[in-house]
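BUG-135 | component: ligand-complex export | severity: low

The export step for nickel (II) ion jobs runs without errors, but we want the raw record kept on the ticket for reference. Input record follows.
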Amino acid sequence: MIQITRREIFNAAHRLYNPKWDKDKNFEVFGPCSRIHGHNWELFVTVEGHINEETGFVMDLKDLRDIMREYIISKVDHTYLNDDVEFLKGQLTSTENFAISIWKILFPVLENIGVKLTKIKLVETANHYVEYFGK
Ligand code: NI
């Protein structure tokens, strides 16, 4: 089995804010992340499958790019994640929750075209990122 990965980048703002708490409690827990701030995010989507003998590809990376753009990037780029993104509604917009939501959207789409999603890597800053493997 072999894996391939496509990266896409986007810009989006968010804040870590639990609506059940007041502003002070949110600041105590999340610090400056409780204020609205932006990131240049990087999304890495990894799939595995068998190599197609006619193309030498697991899948055409242009198709993976198009799927990432259609289902995720176009919905999140230049948005305020907490308010503007339907699939994040009602969630804390931590990188963890964000990565899991992306997985849930992409897994069935990729399964439909015969490849298996194996990893979502979501980079929030140069110093931290989240990886989700579906369990
Ligand atoms: Ni942040």
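Assignee comment: Attached the raw record above. The pocket of nickel (II) ion is lined by residues 14, 33, 37, 39, 124 (CB under 6 Å).
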